Amino acid sequence: MYYQKLKKFPKNFLWGAASAAYQIEGAWNEDGKGPSIWDTFSKIPGKTYHGTNGDVAVDHYHRYKEDVELMAKMGLKAYRFSIAWSRIIPDGDGEINQLGIKFYDDLINDLLAHDIEPVITLYHWDIPQALQDKYGGWESRSVIDAFRKYCQAVFNAYGSKVKYWVTFNEQNIFTAMGYRWASHPPNVTDIKRMYAANHIINLANAMVINLFHELVPNGMIGPSFGYGPTYPITANPNDVLAADNADDFNNNWWLDVYCRGTYPALVMNHLKALGVAPEVSAADEKLLKSAKPDFLGINYYHGGTFQQNQIEHPDTDQHEKNFSKTDPYLMQPRSAQAQAPETTMFNNVQNPYLNKTQWGWEIDPVGFRIALRRVYEKYQLPIMVTENGLGAQDKLESDNVVNDQYRIDYLQEHITEMQRAMTDGVELLGYCAWSFTDLLSWLNGYKKRYGFVYINRDDDDQKDLRRIPKKSFYWYRDFINKNS
Q1: Is 397 an annotated catalytic residue?
Q2: What residue spans define the domains of the chain?
């Protein structure tokens, strides 16, 4: 669809940026905070780049006022951040830590004082270690009640101040990384356990949405999903079918549950045949159907390209020859175990029309428009873009300059496609770029930088943690000011 003129962003559009507690806060054991699974996992030798962890991170816990001041100078309309569950309830289901409540209350008040809308993520991958030890984490239904207690505490504390809430961040990513490839906690490689845990998280998501609607009737809540559109490599109907299979497997398996309360039949039947499907009771079905999100959060980086599965199409073609044996989103080894359910459904191939980032992620701005249109047309829910950004090895030059024009180009191209999607008719609430400051990249330490603000530290030395606005900081400031 070509337009001579694009629809303007509304005046109340939430131009923002995002972060996650473990990646920025530090203060990992201060003021009563208990350890999370990431505090434990990141200390396992060989699991993270140079043994990096979030003990200090970028010290947002002690420097949040400085960070909020920079947000205000940038003109941010929204700031998406996550709450560390173990800062609120150190052991996950015991006494509430009032110092933890106070920290986020102070942060929220400071944001509101600067006319910045807080967007709170309830869970960004950091379940308390005590619950992992006590119940096996998300593999036990007992954790649902613990999650309810935590959520009720923060809804009661902040529900009158905060309108927008995200339940789970990228459930598709943290379940696969944690229970399938052991590249995230809880360090498991068992696909049946992955699907069982994923189902319990779906139940927790439904429970908390219903609880929210009881306690915060004027707010809005929804999950944040790592979405990638699926393309067939050719017009061969077998490749088109493979792309449809991949869409069901990679996207609909979660989104259908969030928005319709049901698992897609194709994938469920396939997993049952393999003996790895989750057990879903009648009560589970009732709960899943009862929960209605108010919006969908979409994290977009890129999609994937597919051809007919290798059993029916065993010949390696030109598109496959140079395709690195990694998953296009997670960048994890595609071992036989990791690919088991996919083997008969589709085969990942590289897209010959796209360039890649320094970390091998495809750069696909048009795919952003496709993603937004597909999700909105299917589920008819407002969308908040909760993540979109470029990871790069930024360099601090003389005179405290970080010339990240490549990030500006990336964001400009993606925002333009978002504006085209809005002109197409997609209802958008806001856009939270990833990320506001540089932060700890879960597995890549501090060398992979996403922020508008450079943090003066590296993988081996926290240095002075100075905040240095990059060139992209000033670009985004001017963009927000013009709303165009």
Answers
A1: no
A2: 14-482
Scanning 294-404, the segments in alpha helix (DSSP H) are: 318-321, 365-379
CA-based nearest residue to 407, from 422, 381, 429, 389:
389
- Give dist(CA 254, CA 379) in Å, integer: 12
The rounded distance, in Å, linking the Cα atoms of 67 and 24 is 11
Partners of 397 in the beta sheet?
401
Query: What average pLDDT score do residues 265-294 get?
Result: 97
Token pair in block for residue 378: 């299917």
Look at residue 335 in the predicted model and tell me its pLDDT: 52
- The Cα 484–Cα 470 span in angstroms is 20
Q: What is the pLDDT of residues 417-427, one digit of tens each?
A: 999 999 999 99
Give dist(CA 190, CA 5) in Å, integer. 51
Amino acid in the structure at residue 100: G
In the set 139, 342, 362, 387, the catalytic residue is 387
Domain 14-482 architecture: Alpha-Beta Barrel (3.20)
Active-site entry in 117, 170, 342, 417? 170
Taking a C-beta distance cutoff of 8 angstroms, is the pair 361, 302 a contact?
yes
Task: Give the relative orientation of helices 365-379 and 405-424 as an angle to the nearest 10 degrees.
Answer: 30
pTM assigned to the model: 0.95
pLDDT of residue 316: 52
| Three-state SS at 424 | helix
| Per-position b or e across 193-229, b if 16+ CB within 10 A of its CB | bbbbbbbbbbbbbbbbbbbbeeebeebbbbbbbbbbb
pLDDT in tens, 309-341: 988 888 655 444 444 444 544 444 445 544 589
Contact assessment for residue 420 and residue 3, using Cβ atoms and an 8 Å cutoff = yes
> What are the two backbone dihedrals, phi and then psi, of residue 428, each rounded to the nearest 5 degrees?
-120, 135
Decide if 362 is catalytic. no
Q: How many CB atoms lie within 10 A of CB 432?
A: 30
- By percentage, how much of the chain surpasses pLDDT 70? 95
Task: Report which of 139, 193, 170, 169 is spatially closest to residue 330, judged by C-alpha positions.
Answer: 170
The residue among 89, 153, 159, 87 whose CA lies nearest residue 118 is 159
In this prediction, residue 121 has a pLDDT band, given cuts at 50, 70 and 90, of very high
Mean pLDDT of the chain: 94
